[in-house]
TrEMBL record, chains A, B:
The keyword Transcription regulation applies. The keyword Transcription regulation applies. This is DNA-binding LacI/PurR family transcriptional regulator. Coiled coil: none annotated. Keywords: DNA-binding, Transcription, Transcription regulation. It comes from the Bacteria. It comes from Motilibacter peucedani. It holds the Pfam family Peripla_BP_3. GO terms for molecular function: DNA-binding transcription factor activity; transcription cis-regulatory region binding. SUPFAM superfamilies: lambda repressor-like DNA-binding domains (SSF47413), Periplasmic binding protein-like I (SSF53822).
Length: 341, 341
DNA sequence: CTGAAAGCGCTAACAA
DNA sequence: TTGTTAGCGCTTTCAG
């Protein structure tokens, strides 16, 4: 049984498709009588507009792509959870994709050929993308980049100041009297910019405190997961001069590290204090709860969606904006022990 | 600068749009010479098909909606992570939405009017949906329901046998000698079917063991989050006759309960053993790690996607299938202590 | 194997 | 205010 079309409604109501369209979309002025007639026909046929046809006629898909590296990483899941309702509230649908942090995949997504008018814009949280990849992107694609990368002026960027935040996290540990602070998560290669900013913050904190950095305490991990934190921590504890504190580049890294510390009978924070990054929910209810850098996710989502839709709706190119989101250091049990908030 | 269309390519190549379409889609046989000409033109113009137009002509959107209650709940995030690549591998895009477990929202999504050919089918993981809501759904929408609800024959259903799994979880606790096992997460009202099946399994385990059920140990929680587990656990411990084991209706509930137990200085599992449900990653790295019912998420995703796409591709109605996915009980530290796998 | 042409269902410029 | 009509860009039937 074929779906009723605008035409069917028009025929039934004895008006033109144009008028029905006006009624459906609330355009222009329609006389009350006509409107009533049309609405009755609409009702009678149980008409629902065909979005596909509308999209084609409009030249817009009404869809926005949101792309993150991993959906099952709590930070990105929480971010997505914040973004989706906001996009939908503005009348757009959300197409979701994950890249597994694969640089080629990320680069492909923003390249010209990839899109086929399937989405009107994209919010991308890249992991491996290089500046060169960004340079080769589709210049007509409204794009908001999330995370630790500054805009080159042609797309919007939303994120927190990672260097400052990392510096604060490490300063917190220093202020607790810790002097052998491990930095867990460095990635000193092209696709590790996010990690490198945290390392920069780590160095900055030491510098400001007039303390030297023990390079051997800066540990690399392939990713920012629990297993990475666990593996790194185990290695650190096997050294003759283990650290008395850990700055994990994500809360998952911190949780993995804590897991190993407790397994080895060490106390957190008494023996080793740990601070993480992201403020995911897991860290709030773990034992001990995890001190962390808490980026304001609502603000990030709000800003990203707002920037993107503004750009889509204004069509033509707009100059890229840099939007720096506030963050806070949340001190929980993993650094200040029981009685922490 | 307007995008090149099929027509432009045809003009440049000196053939008809029909032929270009054939080449682009690999349809029919095209003579090598013609093909070469067309491909050159394609290349030259950097042509990319307009998906919107193609969709309209095909009467299909090439999109699948995947709807879960909460994106930031690890179980659903992990499920989504498993589903998305599989859908994309079959050439479809994924539209994601979350319902916040709101029954009205869920019911609306499967109602006739909601869709506008925007998606060709839906995978829905309902929380509050009633049988009546399901009865009122759009009969033409290919639908796969995930979770604890049996099919009425007109849609597919994929899930594990919750009663059996819950029974096994509780039997595990009984086999460890526990006799005062709390069940945390019951929801004895219309929208709590999922919870009720777990409770049924809890009862069944006792029945099989020939043991009575202490009704006061079956505790209700509004949701299955950490905070619910924590709150319930606190109340249980305030009783004069606290439990010696807990069956949490999700791993989050279990983690929340463990958190409170440790805070109060109790040992897990020595004083109180805890088992959860879902096998989320958090439970594997927490201290102690959480024993749990592990549904086979890959199989769930695989089955759901396969059923849905099969239905979409075969168009006409197919009889609904019930697909029962295997699960396992994973005994970790929260029940068997250190040395657990 | 390829061309001509009729839609898919909706929007919107142009008329009336 | 409302009707007429020409697309949006692609697919596909029917000829040739």
């Amino acid at each position: 049984m074929a779906e009723p079309t605008l035409r069917d409604v028009a025929l039934l109501a004895g008006v033109s498709p144009r008028t029905v369209s006006n009624v459906v979309n609330g355009y222009a002025q329609v006389s009350p009588q006509t409107r009533a007639k049309v609405e009755k026909a609409l009702e009678q046929l149980d008409y629902r507009p065909n979005v596909l046809a509308r999209n084609l006629a409009n030249g817009r898909s009404g869809q926005v792509a949101v792309v993150v590296p991993y959906l099952d990483t709590p930070y990105f899941a929480e971010l997505l959870q914040a973004i989706i309702p906001r996009v939908r509230a503005r009348g757009f649908n959300v197409l979701v994709d994950q890249t597994d942090g694969d640089r080629a995949h990320e680069a492909e997504l923003i390249r010209r050929k990839a899109r086929g008018f399937l989405y009107d814009g994209m919010i991308l949280s890249p992991l491996g993308l290089s500046q060169a990849d960004l340079a080769g992107r589709d210049p007509d694609l409204p794009l908001v980049i999330l995370g630790e990368r500054s805009s080159d002026g042609a797309f919007d960027h939303v994120g927190i100041d990672d260097v400052a935040a990392s510096c604060e996290a490490v300063t917190h540990l220093l202020s607790l009297g810790r002097r052998r602070i491990a930095a867990v998560g460095d990635q000193p290669y092209a696709t590790g910019e996010a990690a490198q900013r945290r390392t920069a913050g780590y160095r900055l904190a030491h510098e400001r405190a007039g303390l030297p950095v023990d390079e051997s305490l800066i540990v690399q991990t392939p990713r920012f997961n629990r297993v990475d934190g666990a593996t790194a921590m185990a290695r650190l504890l096997d050294r003759p001069d283990p650290p008395d504190a850990v700055f994990g580049y994500s809360d998952l890294v911190a949780l993995g590290a804590i897991r190993v510390l407790l397994e080895r009978g060490l106390r957190v924070p008494e023996d080793v204090a740990v601070v993480g990054y992201d403020d995911i929910e897991d860290g709030r209810y773990s034992t001990p709860s995890v001190s962390t850098i808490s980026p304001d996710k609502s603000t990030i989502a709000e800003a990203a969606v707002d920037r993107l839709l503004r750009r889509i709706e204004s069509r033509g190119p707009v100059t890229g904006e840099e939007f720096v989101v506030p963050w806070t250091l949340v001190a929980r049990e993993s650094t200040v022990g029981r009685g922490a908030p």
